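Try this one yourself first.
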């Protein structure tokens, strides 16, 4: 653990980024025209990591105007379709890598989503795949470059999980999940993405990289803690990414960036060899999950990992095969949760709930049920005790010697944390298990006359769409399912509408927190072009069923960014 002043360490972090960028530019070799375009781009990367640059208001629009059409022809293609081209050798692995590197370089300048590029390792892997085409082409993810959250170990790289003192923590191994995707899948990491200080944040800001902004509206957050993954994949500058989730860290980045993300059931795929605060605590465990603009990729990532039998590598995993998603169930019962009773959703979120409710009600194989919240106040009572059982001492130790300031969003997350005695920990673990059992009983109570229970519940991810920077201060809509260990799939529904999503008049807030969030949604203009996603929640180990339901929703909604897409959604991409 380093003890140098945080400002000096921040410069080292910036140098790591710049050196990796320089090496990557040697591979992709921007021509004169692209170089001029790139150099003229407004940057979300500040001169120091305490500055937040000068990002353009709508990065996605400028991204599409900057990335060469030949690159977009590759990166805008659904990765599942691109995979077919790779397997039939219509395109080489190196060509795909160079295209994604080009896209990621431009994306990073616009939204500040990358900690480090991986040019040497990625190019070597792609070249070897091309050389060994005959023996490798049948690998399920042959030739796809993917992104990884910085906290996931990658050989010969520092893993800081957002604390500068760990810049010297250079690991000598790859996380199990990376080895599986590379060796059994044929995919490979090409960039490492940003995550915030402490990781316990619905924002993505740290003294290591600065602030990652939302690609659709830079005045909004990209989410956290997998915010770099959300932003990069939101721009389609990665085929998929790996995030982690202990309180919403896959779901808010996916939701705020209009893409898919899966908070998996604990024990399905490897996570045990990651770094984070409070290592050793098993009260609430983080899980891994894929983030992608392609639901098919989410499905394929899960299948590839689980088919590799990771339980033979990581003894904490369960031996449950991945069941093919075929949408062959005769009927689905789906609950709709419109509010948790503590903070009501904003107009665009309520409209998204109405959209999906109305569409599902018209389907012959779906029954829609009104679902009510259950003891939501108890969720925060329990989690406020067990998220930081040590009173946040472990986190404080990471900033103690370097003088690294504790950021406002981190302060909000750890505010009120008190160290628990052993017996206090036992007590709150018992409360956790008691709540899980009570909640399951609540869920089961929604069975029909044929004893068919709910297959899923659709609910908000957050009270609003992506909030403005510094305003992400509520995670009940996500952390409830960490407490319960329920899988959750995030799905895109629509986009903020300037005419339909006006703030409510004469609204009477439920409480101070509800009032705060009501005031945060001041105007649809403030949230212009922001995607609106929802959660699809299931009981433990029903991850596959969520993807089945996700495909039904996808079929009804279409591509929310496609002007010529399905149904009545508002386009962004122009």
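Now uncover the answer:
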């Amino acid at each position: 653990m380093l003890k140098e002043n945080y400002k000096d360490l921040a410069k080292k972090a910036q140098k790591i980024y710049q050196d990796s960028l320089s090496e990557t530019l040697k591979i992709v070799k921007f021509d004169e025209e692209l170089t001029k375009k790139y150099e003229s781009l407004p940057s979300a990367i500040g001169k120091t990591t305490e500055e937040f640059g000068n990002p353009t208001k709508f990065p996605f629009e400028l991204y599409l105007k900057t990335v060469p059409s030949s690159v977009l022809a590759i990166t805008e293609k659904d990765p599942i379709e691109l995979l077919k081209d790779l397997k039939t050798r219509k395109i080489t692995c190196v060509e795909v890598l160079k295209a994604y590197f080009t896209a990621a370089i431009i994306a990073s300048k616009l939204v500040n989503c990358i900690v480090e590029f991986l040019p040497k390792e990625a190019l070597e892997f792609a070249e070897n795949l091309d050389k060994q085409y005959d023996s490798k082409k049948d690998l399920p993810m042959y030739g796809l470059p993917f992104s990884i959250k910085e906290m996931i170990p990658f050989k010969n790289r520092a893993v800081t999980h957002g604390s500068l003192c760990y810049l010297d923590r250079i690991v000598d191994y790859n996380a199990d999940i990376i080895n599986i995707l590379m060796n059994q899948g044929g995919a490979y990491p090409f960039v490492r993405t940003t995550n915030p200080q402490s990781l316990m944040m619905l924002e993505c800001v740290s003294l290591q990289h600065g602030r990652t902004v939302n690609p659709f509206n830079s005045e909004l957050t990209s989410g956290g803690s997998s915010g770099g993954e959300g932003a990069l994949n939101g721009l389609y500058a990665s085929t998929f990414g790996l995030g982690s989730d202990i309180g919403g860290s896959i779901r808010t980045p996916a939701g705020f960036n209009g893409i898919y993300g899966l908070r998996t059931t604990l024990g399905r795929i490897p996570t045990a060899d990651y770094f984070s605060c409070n290592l050793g605590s098993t009260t609430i465990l983080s899980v891994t999950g894929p983030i992608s603009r392609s639901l098919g990729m989410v499905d394929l990532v899960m299948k590839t990992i689980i088919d590799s039998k990771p339980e033979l590598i990581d003894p904490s995993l369960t031996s449950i095969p991945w069941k093919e998603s075929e949408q062959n169930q005769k009927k689905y019962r789906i609950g709709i949760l419109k509010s948790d009773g503590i903070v009501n959703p904003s107009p665009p979120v309520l409209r998204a709930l109405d959209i999906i409710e109305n569409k599902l009600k018209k389907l012959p194989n779906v029954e829609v049920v009104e679902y009510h919240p259950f003891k939501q106040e108890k969720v925060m009572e329990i989690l406020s005790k067990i998220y930081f059982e040590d009173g946040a001492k472990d986190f404080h130790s990471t900033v103690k010697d370097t003088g690294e300031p504790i950021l406002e969003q981190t302060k909000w997350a750890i505010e009120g944390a008190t160290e628990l005695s052993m017996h206090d920990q036992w007590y709150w673990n018992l409360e956790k298990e008691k709540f899980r059992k009570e909640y399951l009983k609540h869920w089961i109570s929604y069975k029909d006359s044929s004893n068919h229970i709910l297959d899923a519940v659709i609910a908000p991810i957050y009270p609003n769409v992506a909030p403005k920077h510094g305003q992400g201060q509520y995670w009940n809509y996500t952390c409830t399912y960490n407490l319960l260990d329920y899988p959750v799939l995030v799905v895109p529904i629509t986009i903020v509408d300037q005419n339909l999503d006006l703030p409510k008049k004469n609204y009477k807030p439920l409480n101070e927190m509800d009032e705060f969030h009501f005031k945060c949604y001041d105007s649809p203009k403030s949230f212009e072009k922001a995607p609106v996603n929802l959660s699809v929640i299931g009981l433990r180990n029903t991850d596959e069923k969520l993807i089945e339901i996700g495909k039904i929703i996808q079929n009804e909604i279409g591509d929310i960014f496609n002007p010529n897409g399905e149904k009545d959604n508002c386009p962004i991409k122009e």
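Discussion: The first strand starts at residue 114 and ends at 117. Residues 6-377+450-557 form a domain with the Amidase signature (AS) enzymes fold (CATH 3.90.1300.10).
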